[in-house]
Amino acid sequence: MKTYQIKTRDGRVLHVVEAGDPKGPAVIVHHGTPGAGILYGPHIADALDRHIRLLSYSRPGYGGSTRHEGRNVADAARDVEDILNALNIERCATWGISGGGPHALACAALLPSRVVAACALASVAPYGAQDLDFLAGMGEDNIEEFSAALQGPDAIRADLTQRAQALTHLDLPTLLESMRSLLSFVDQRTLTGDFGAYLLESFSTVKTYGIEGWLDDDLAFVKPWGFDVSAISIPVQIWQGEQDRFVPFSHGQWLRQHIISAESHLNADDGHLTLLAYRVPLVHEWLRHHF
Questions:
Q1: How many helices (H) and strands (E) does the chain have?
Q2: Which pLDDT value is given to residue 50?
Q3: Residue 84 phi/psi, 5° resolution?
Q4: Nearest residue to 229 via CA among 144, 139, 125, 78
Q5: Which CATH code is given to the segment(s) 2-288?
Q6: Distance CA 256, CA 38 (A)
Q7: Are 12 and 68 in contact (CB under 8 A)?
Q8: InterPro entries, from UniProt (predicted)?
Q9: Do 26 and 94 contact (CB within 8 A), yes or no?
Q10: Strands 26-30 and 92-97
Q11: What Å distances lie between residue 133 and 97, 129, 242, 254, CA to CA?
């Protein structure tokens, strides 16, 4: 596995991780919220099997990447373009999970000459859409978090500071308890073993790097994204589970209806975490075919 510290056009630094086949086509991963650009072992193994060059980066404010205060979702496309240029990659595909989903869609919308295909798994849809009740169906914890984000920077900082305290001495039982209102049965069953350890590692980066990336993500989700998803023209897949309490099923339905080029996997038996734990090989297979 390789790591890079890549300088952006405005002088920030992005922490990038690379695994898989260095000679294969590049796939850029956008992590969830909160999180960091840490790759899951089975995803790396799958990338090797499919001869994919798998890259993940920590969004600004996360995992060693310089904060970009006031960023919007569209800014991710510029960061990814800077990564591609620095690593001499002409074209890539991309996928994002949960809070990474909008950022993958930003790349699809704004980098059509560089991004061949994109997948959004358990992604939030844009806040304020007239035909979407953004909070309906969310677990209580996420309703409280997004409600704080809607009140502004001071309110969400206070909310996330309290949430981050629960991550100070994190173990799997503590993680399960902290997400109790968000975990459907299928997701709770998934949060064990190697996958549970991977999520613990990802969430634990908040202890080291603080809440700034998390805060900036939440604020970006509830303000204009900086692009219109209906303008996306490249191939897109939308994955959403009906058992998802983190991001309601209606968000995936909305994205499918408003992205003309999208095909959907709106699965009755999936939750939120199950998509990340089990569906990425199918995502990689589909993305690989677009090179």
A1: 12, 8
A2: 98
A3: -60, -45
A4: 125
A5: 3.40.50.1820
A6: 28
A7: yes
A8: AB_hydrolase (IPR050471), AB_hydrolase_1 (IPR000073), AB_hydrolase_fold (IPR029058)
A9: no
A10: parallel
A11: 21, 8, 16, 10
What type of residue is 185? F
Cut 0.90: pTM above it: yes
26-30 and 236-241 strand pairing: unpaired
For residue 118, the tally of other CB atoms under 10 A from its CB is: 33
Long-range contacts formed by 127-135: CB under 8 A, 24+ apart: 127/221, 127/222, 127/223, 128/222, 128/224, 129/254, 129/258, 131/254, 132/250, 132/251, 132/254, 133/250, 134/251
Q: So what's the pLDDT on residue 178?
A: 85
Q: What is the pLDDT of residue 168?
A: 77
In Å, what is the CA distance from 170 to each residue of 42, 163, 202, 205?
A: 23, 12, 11, 11
Place of tokens 């890539």: 92
The tens digit of pLDDT for each residue in 182-213 reads 999 999 999 999 999 999 999 999 989 999 99
Gap between the Cα atoms of 25 and 91, Å rounded? 8
37-72: string of b/e by CB count within 10 Å (b at 16+)? bbbbeebbebbeebebbbbbbbbbbbbbbbbbeebb
DSSP 3-state of 147:
helix
Q: Which residue has the tokens 């844009």?
A: 126
Indicate the burial class of 162 (C-beta count within 10 angstroms; 0-12, 13-18, 19 or more).
Answer: exposed
SS3 264: strand
Q: What is the pLDDT of residues 105-130, one digit of tens each?
A: 999 999 999 999 999 999 999 999 98
Judge residue 228's burial from the number of C-beta atoms within 10 Å of its C-beta, 0-12 exposed, 13-18 middle, 19 or more buried: exposed
Domain range summary for the chain, segments of one domain joined by +? 2-288
